[in-house]
Amino acid sequence: MNVLFVHNNFPGQFDRMARALVKDPSHRVVAIGAETAKELSGVEVRRYRTPETSSADAHPFARRFESECRRAERVLFVASALKASGFEPDTILVHCGWGENIALKSLFPKARMVVYFEYFYRAEGQDVHFEPTYGTFGADGLARVHCNNVSTLLALSECDAGISPTQWQRSTYPVEFQTKIRAIHEGIDTEVARPNPRAHFQLQGGRILTRQDEVVTYTTRGFEPLRGFGTLAHALPKILRERPQAQIVIVGNDRSPYGPPAPDGNGWKTHYLNEVLPQLDMARVHFLDFLPYQRFLSLLQVSSAHIYLTYPFVLSWSLTEAMSVGCRIVGSDTQPVREAIEHGVSGLLVPFKDPEAVADAVVELLADPVGAARLGLAAREVIKDRFDQRKCVPRALEVLGVGAPGLKGSIDEDGRPAGMLN
Predict the structure, then answer these.
(1) Comparing C-alpha atoms, which of 189, 102, 223 is closest to residue 154?
(2) Least crowded by CB within 10 Å, which of 27, 54, 287, 336?
(3) Where are the domains of the chain?
């Protein structure tokens, strides 16, 4: 069977499906991605050059769609060359978040079209207007939010089936289309992301942290409001004050992948830290850039309390990986997190906008390591039951209409499943 993956940052969410498929020599697996697409053994990766953004003349409502159309055109060029060479996909799996889906059905009308649906934008009830940090949107701003869904709506109308990683993310889509979409997570390799009582993690200054230390962790792609960095920053003084042995380890990058930049131009990290800096013992607060996967797992394995905060938005891989490792989670009481964590059973849920509640929950876990350990074990069981790749990947392949031999965990050269980000 010929299978075509299309993803700007291939393999991204398609990593485990692609790895499973290439184990069967009867499948020819081809992928189209931009310059950031990674090589994956057994997959023929074809790249396109990301088009230059030149939408200044487009109407503000249409600027995102203009950019998506330009990208779709680049995908069309590459896909047309594939077709001219004799490749006809039986199944296509495409992420619709960048408009790469727009021309595929026209070029390959007989292929089974499966679309990865990550998130449907809405003016209320999700990330927009969740808190006032990003300001309020007028009618024109809300119209632009609605227009973010143009290529997604095209995908919904054309696809034969869809996949969304969680039930809540599936629920963001229009009710009339939800019957097309199955909630199937990309899958966590629970054999790799697992507890390790002998784990250790070396800080930049040379200190080695182990499970005997009080380690509080927080990981994110960007130190921005959407992932709760402001709430975290304001929770730190109380945590440090009430737990004088605690070490805070924060992993991420000072950027805004999902929202606007900080208003003062200094970045959200500086913006929020300046508000609490006089109250912090910075000798116990450690900021680290992105880590190789095995080192990232080592940090989670020594964690005594892991903080995960998010607006109602896409659920991060970092949470499911932390749960798989057995972390004691303090999470925001928001829809995507509630789907993964039951308060008091597999973690503690606190109001997103309440730094004191975050601090109190962390202190509670640090003061009761036996009770906290029970939460960590329960969190891992949730992942094994509902998010394990051995269950998720076969279900996803069923949607694609293909099968694959038995799965075994595999990781790339730096130890992290290819294409995955924190």
Answers:
(1) 102
(2) 54
(3) 2-187+388-400, 200-385
Of 56, 69, 64, 68, the closest CA to residue 143 belongs to: 64
Through-space distance between the first and last CA atoms of the chain, rounded to whole angstroms: 33
pLDDT band at 421 (very low <50, low <70, confident <90, very high): very low
Strand 305-308, strand 285-288: pairing: unpaired
**Residue 260: its pLDDT value, please?**
84
Number of residues in the chain: 422
DSSP structure string for 368-411: -HHHHHHHHHHHHHHHHHHTBHHHHHHHHHHHHT----------
Query: What topology is assigned to 2-187+388-400 in CATH?
Result: Rossmann fold (3.40.50)
Q: Compute the distance between CA of residue 274 and CA of residue 253 in angstroms, rounded to an integer.
A: 17
Q: Characterise 323 by phi-psi region: left (phi > 0), alpha (psi -120 to 50), beta (else).
A: alpha
User: What's the pLDDT tens digit per position in 128-148?
Assistant: 889 887 767 888 888 988 999
- The pair phi, psi for residue 182, each rounded to 5°, is -105, 140
Q: Give the phi and the psi of residue 47 in degrees, each rounded to 5.
A: -115, 150
Cα-flanking dihedrals φ and ψ of residue 59, to 5°? -60, 145
Instruction: Tell me the Cα Rg of the chain.
Output: 22
> Contact at 8 Å (CB) between 20 and 40?
no
DSSP calls for 29-62: EEEEE-TTPPP-TT-EEEE-PPPPP--TTS-GGG
Quick: pLDDT tens for 219-239.
Answer: 999 999 999 999 999 999 999
Q: Which of 148, 152, 128 is nearest to 138 (CA)?
A: 128
**Sequence-separated (6 or more) residues with CB below 8 Å from residue 171:** 178
One-letter amino acid at 7 equals H
Which CATH code is given to the segment(s) 200-385?
3.40.50.2000
Q: Which residue has the tokens 């409001």?
A: 225
